[in-house]
Amino acid sequence: MATTARASVRAGMVTCASAFAAANPTLCRAIFDVRPTRLSGDIPFCFVEILTEDALHTQGVQQRVLEGSFVFVVRPIENSEQVDQTDAIVDGFTEHLKDYATLSAGLVWSRLRTLEDSLTFPDGVTYPTLRFTLTDVTEMTGRT
Q1: Domains of the chain
Q2: pTM, two decimal places
Q3: Residue 72 burial by Cβ neighbours in a 10 Å radius (0-12, 13-18, 19+)
Q4: 28 and 46 in contact (C-beta within 8 Å)?
Q5: If you compute the radius of gyration of the chain from its CA atoms, what whole number of angstroms results?
Q6: Which residues, 6 or more positions from 47, have their beta carbon under 8 angstroms from its beta carbon?
């Protein structure tokens, strides 16, 4: 089976996040291609999610638009330290994304939305998160 757009988006996002982690090991220690079911201690870390997909078929062209997120999970620490760490991740990763306007061949994005939130993991601890959502990863192909 040929690689799907979804698999290509996920792989491109993992490549992008891995490059950021390699350049910024104190801001991101591990990358996961899906949400991990348990924490290994490598915090802060990032995982990739593909949230939604829309498809449009017109005049012999299929356009797929996916929404994917990079989710950074950080340790709950003192508020002032937390703000410094999250600001560094937001500023650093936003700048890093400039080099990844094309996630893989034929897949481009143009809008970014950032959200500070939290997730509760199976260990019962709620961890602060930063969600970077590419709201319009687009692939256009011919259709017969």
Answers
A1: 5-142 (3.30.2000.10)
A2: 0.86
A3: buried
A4: yes
A5: 16
A6: 31, 32, 33, 34, 35, 36, 70, 71, 73
| CA 98 vs CA 4, 35, 74, 85: distances in Å | 24, 24, 23, 21
Q: pLDDT of 25-67, one tens digit each? A: 999 999 999 998 877 778 899 999 987 888 888 888 877 888 8
Per the DSSP assignment, residues forming a β-bridge with 109 are none
Count CA within 13 A, CB hemisphere, residue 110.
Answer: 3
User: What are φ and ψ of residue 56, in 5° steps?
Assistant: -125, 130
Rounded (5°) CA angle 122-126-129: 110
Identify the DSSP state of 2.
P
Q: 21 φ, ψ to 5°?
A: -65, -40
